[in-house]
Amino acid sequence: MDHNSPASAPVMRRKLRWYHIFMITIGGIIGIGFATTSGQVLAIAGPGGTLVAFGVNGFVAICVMEGICEMIVLWPISNAMIEFVRAFVDKDLAIVVGIAYWYSWACTMTALVIGAAGLLSYWNISTGLLNVVFFGCIFVLFLINCSGILLFGRIELAGGIFKLLLVTIIFLTMICVNNGAGGGPSIGSAFFNDGIKNNPNVAGSQFVAVIIAIPIATFSYTGVEIVTVTAFEAAKPKELRMPAKNIAYFTLIFYVLNIGGFIANIEWFNQNLPQFFSQPLVSLQTPNLGHTPWFPQTGLRSSAAPIIATLQVGMKTLPAVLTGLLMYSGLSAANASLYVASRTLYGLTRDLAYDDERFLVRMAAKLNVISPRTRVPLWSLLVSVLAFSSWLPFIKIHSGYTQEDLQNTFESIGSTGCLLVWASQCLAFIRYNKWLWKHKEELQGEHLQQFQRWPQKGFSSWASALQPGPAYVGLISCLVIVFILNTASLWNGQDQKSKALTVFLGPGLLLTIFLVLKLVNKRGWVVLDDRWEVLHSTLSNLTDLINPDIQTQPGSNPPTPSTNNIGEGEK
């Protein structure tokens, strides 16, 4: 309960078990991105470039999650990523991180619904009907998120299991197609052997093609950090350990296997592959394609890689079935995205008072209102739904943007925001680790021992002994992708306005907000003080947030099961 809230204000329920958390995270990661984004990357950089792009992003995600995992198991708190930055980096930057994370997931939800509705084009659905489907999907997602965390968790548990079955079916289907099922010849490694290529309409060289491909592939990895959003609704802190420790590794393996199956069965110059900002696909008359084009294209079209692969060999029923299943997968991921966006907005406004004398603050404080019946932040849900999706079809009608253009734009904005949040978490862990090092001699006793990182033992991440190395790699990589690799798509001079919007809008807006906050608040960054009392107080404040109703000290005997579970989770 917030100290500014009324005494009777309801709080969110702690009901989620580790399997709920793992499946909610899976639900947020596995949407339609792995099926559509992989095809887009394939059309730009060829099979070799696709594997490089997804491999690089998987490595970055692992480095980022190594630090997040350690902190979130110690402090399973509401608004965790914002609180970590506030405690160890900068209070104003923490606000910016909250804004970035909220809009990145609101954009992601919109992109996923656009993509799911767009799959209906397989049946040549009209634009008007697509808009009806779009709004209908948004409304259903809102109702599901209003139902309460336990029902939501059960839905995502069932949905996550279904998704794992779906991707298993797709993977086995790709093996069958590769070996000649469906009427086509055995492909083997013929398409793999094309290696790294470049579509000259997008990239001037193979190197540039890979650089462009890496930021595009990032979208498929956004969501590995959703574990932190579920933390405050976890039944016990130890429920976070398994999903936080393993989700990034699982995601990398998942993508390598499934995307490997796609690119083994689809020529990188297949004319059904999705375009990048309406830039033409490579022409079949382009020299050095790698091999002679295989099958003539059928009349049916789809932007999803597994469907393209089944269409390519002449299958008739399976492509339609896969289209329906991928639509469900995309909407399930959008459901998890709305959950993340609403919880982030709730956490961002958690400390605002209902009776503040400033009108705008009082209005913003409504976003931390919890429904007394379902214990969900209804106003935050509503604002997250309406922020981008309510006006989107009208923009499409009047601007002439294609469905793929809009999807590319929202995916890029969402990915960029998420990468900046990842970078902030790496920076928070680096400074946290540095501060602990200053006072490692004081970190003694039953409850302070959990913060002692020297020697390394008992931590919740796989590579804790290598820290802060992974955190530095994650920080530098995220910044390089956002501020350097992201600009590579501008180098060919085509569609500059749309690309510049996706590249510079998010970072520019966040920088402006940060500078305004600095000018207004006139406060500096968190000082890693040499006095033990200051660090002790910081650790205490974070520990208090596990149960805001009870004030505890990390060196005292915690009076609640919630705080005791922190120590248990680290043993």
In words, what does this structure look like?
By secondary structure, the chain is an all-alpha fold. The chain has one domain: Up-down Bundle (Amino acid/polyamine transporter I), CATH 1.20.1740. It has 19 helices and no strands. Helix 5 packs across helix 11 (317-348). The chain starts with 17 loop residues before the first helix and ends with a helix. It is a multi-pass membrane protein. It is found in: Membrane. Residues 20-440 form the Amino acid permease/ SLC12A domain. Keywords: Membrane, Transmembrane, Transmembrane helix, Transport.
**What string gives the helices and strands in order?**
HHHHHHHHHHHHHHHHHHH
> What number is the mean pLDDT?
81
Shape field: globular
What's the architecture in CATH terms? Up-down Bundle
Transmembrane segments: 21-45, 51-73, 93-123, 129-152, 164-187, 207-235, 247-266, 320-341, 376-392, 412-430, 471-491, 503-521
Pfam family, one: AA_permease
Protein name: Amino acid permease/ SLC12A domain-containing protein
Keywords: Membrane, Transmembrane, Transmembrane helix, Transport
Keywords:
571 residues, mainly alpha, Amino acid/polyamine transporter I, 19 helices, disordered C terminus
Helix/strand layout:
Elements: H1 18-29, H2 33-74, H3 80-88, H4 91-118, H5 127-146, H6 149-178, H7 206-218, H8 227-230, H9 241-263, H10 305-312, H11 317-348, H12 359-365, H13 378-389, H14 392-399, H15 403-438, H16 469-483, H17 496-521, H18 532-544, H19 561-570
Helix pairs in contact: 1-6, 1-9, 1-11, 2-7, 2-9, 2-15, 2-16, 3-4, 3-15, 4-5, 4-11, 4-13, 4-15, 4-17, 5-11, 5-13, 6-9, 6-11, 10-11, 11-13, 15-16, 15-17
